[in-house]
Amino acid sequence: xxxxxxxxxxxxxxxxxxxxxxxxxxxxxxxxxxxxxxxxxxxxxxxxxxxxxxxxxxxxxxxxxxxxxxxxxxxxxxxxxxxxxxxxxxxxxxxxxxxxxxxxxxxxxxxxxxxxxxxxxxxxxxxxxxxxxxxxxxxxxxxxxxxxxxxxxxxxxxxxxxxxxxxxxxxxxxxxxxxxxxxxxxxxxxxxxxxxxxxxxxxxxxxxxxxxxxxxxxxxxxxxxxxxxxxxxxxxxxxxxxxxxxxxxxxxxxxxxxxxxxxxxxxxxxxxxxxxxxxxxxxxxxxxxxxxxxxxxxxxxxxxxxxxxxxxxxxxxxxxxxxxxxxxxxxxxxxxxxxxxxxxxxxxxxxxxxxxxxxxxxxxxxxxxxxxxxxxxxxxxxxxxxxxxxxxxxxxxxxxxxxxxxxxxxxxxxxxxxxxxxxxxxxxxxxxxxxxxxxxxxxxx
Length: 445
Hints:
The structure is a single chain. By secondary structure, the protein is mostly helical. The protein has three domains: about 200 residues, no CATH class; about 110 residues, Zincin-like (2-Layer Sandwich); about 120 residues, no CATH class. About 70% of the residues lie in helices and about 5% in strands. The protein contains 16 helices and five strands. A five-stranded mixed sheet has the order 1-2-3-5-4. β2, α6 and β3 form a beta-alpha-beta unit. α10 packs across α13 and α14 runs antiparallel to α15. It is globular, with a radius of gyration of 24 Å.
């Protein structure tokens, strides 16, 4: 995140000044490092997803998942090399920034000193992450080979039944399991250890931007525009790509009666708290809509998998397209946004709705559709409420078709839910709730 075209009064540095060069170098090297970390997490998540399908003996699904993971694995491999090359570049750029900060004085110089200080702490954390990765990734390489071998055999007819395939996979990876579990725990610990220093540096960079009067970077596509701090250029491009892909997905379901021109702002939690008053605790919120603006929270969004980013951006664009929910219950508005968000994302229901699946398997099937209070920040079972709503709306779409679902979402904003449900679907809320609870048991238990 940092600063472009700094100003120091009458002695403002030019675009070719050492300070501008150092700023550009810090931003570029940091973006490369964080994208490498992102790529590693995305690849690990994809391999873990394939592993879960192999464990269940689901050969066709596992092979599709394995093939889909390969671009992520290649990108992660490149990212691990980039960690080696870009880390010295980052520390060197911070050193150059420290020297060049003599071009400014007062609060501006102090802000740059804090960037250097927190950048060095972040660089140390990244070096530890890289060291941990060197020790843990061989377990993922072995998992990759096992998934390839097993899924190739599975689609080639080696196993007569799902159970036989699952048993064969258990034998194939059995000795690897302890090392793989240790690798997963080590990766989670490494990511957690890096998160704090990176969030601190992001906040420091954002504060420096304000002191130095930096203009936001603007990334434009055909339908979407992303404004961000300059140092978040890599993440801004990812947000832009997700948005450009999400616009036609939303339009395919909702129709063309919305602007299809989207303004997004990518910022840190602290900045968003100031920009979205009354938004509550935003530290773990990856994105939200306020008015006609989509706000993306850099820190939690950065930690999402590729599929997670797709779901989040499409979800928020659905809210933007549908507009104010009026008197619609939250389970309809949030469930519809999740329905559009998950469409085509390829996430298994049990994985995307882990908390709800655990509840259902334990016999805790919800007795009714979520209430509006279930979606508040303080709600203990907020993830379950979103999953319940998504599966409820998905059931309506499956039973009655997408056009009828869209009519329902449009009409329920102005009327009684039970009356509109009877008019559109020919069933009552009570009857639908009973069928939805049965579907939860069937799909999750």
